[in-house]
Amino acid sequence: MSPTPNEALPDVSIVIPSYNSAPWLPTTFEALARAVRASGLAVQVVFVDDGSTDDTESVVERIAAAFPGTVELHRQTNQGRFLARWAGLKRSRATATMLLDSRVLVDVDSLVHYRRVLAEEPSQTVWNGHVPTVSDAPLVGRFWEVPTHIFWAHYLRRPRPMDITPENFDSVPKGTTIFLAPTDLLREAFRGTWPADDARLVSDDTKLLRWLVEAHPIRLDPGFSALYRPRTTVRGFVSHTFDRGTLFVDSYAGTTPARSIALIAFALAPIALVVVLVWLVVAGLGAVALGIALASILLALAPALLAAINRCPPRALLAYVAVLPLFVVPFWLGLVRGLFVHRRAFLRRGALHPSTSEEHTAP
């Protein structure tokens, strides 16, 4: 599973971090294999098992034998996706590296499209994947489509190739579910956004991408795509939502004063609402308390209406309404945890920038 000393350098290295994703890996690799064969690219896969307790290792070893490229398995104790990706990135041997999550299905033409565009436009070296959610996912898996169809509506109403720039960064889809860039640039970005706190509780994409977009435009292109397979259980959704609340703070705290204030307000608002409602009930104003409670519920459901206007799929709208009660408390608790864990981030001035961000020592 390891390369020989005289083996030719690959065209692309693919880093796949994974934690207890064994059931998903066979189909993840099957889709990736089809895309690799269609493109004709020579690839090196660096699979990082981030302390899994399932049979990930044996599954990867079986898959490697039939994969059209080298597959290198690296095992480590659980350290979070940021450090798992870094472990893979250190082992990348190609000049370009693709980050790929372990539960996505790469479109068969994605690497073909990347190779064709790169030949025509050599400056297009940094790519952000177009990643819709599989349509047959359970309701808990489609909840997040409503928020994305609000904040990223300009793109999702009509997906088309475009550049992500510092100016439009917060209004278009972005992430590292499937992301490709020059290896050296990625390594520099990782060093520039090295976590000062517990790496399992830091954003592994937004801060990294904010750093990268200051250095180079990022191409967002429907032709470079993969299907996202979300969590399928209530327990998985709740745990993921709790973590997202914390990572949300890490992604935006300190980037601007307004965002920092908004984060603190989001954390305090539910407490203030409960205090007001209790006071009204104790004061004998139960009807007023009920009216405020109903108004708060309607306000929480309003995003579904906005998302519908922006062509959000009907099943995703249903998912938002049905799953919202499971979302509110875990996300808020995660947000509060984030305010504590990332409290130093509120002292930052402005977003990370390649020329001004603090450089951290990476192993």
Automatic annotation (TrEMBL):
Gene3D superfamilies membership: Spore Coat Polysaccharide Biosynthesis Protein SpsA, Chain A
Record keywords, A-Z: Membrane, Transferase, Transmembrane, Transmembrane helix
Annotated Glycosyltransferase 2-like domain residues: 13-102
Transmembrane feature ranges: 261-282, 288-309, 316-340
One annotated GO molecular function: hexosyltransferase activity
Pfam family, one: Glycos_transf_2
Protein name, entry field: Glycosyltransferase
Family annotation (SUPFAM superfamilies): Nucleotide-diphospho-sugar transferases
Keyword Transmembrane part of the UniProt annotation: yes
Organism field: Agromyces protaetiae
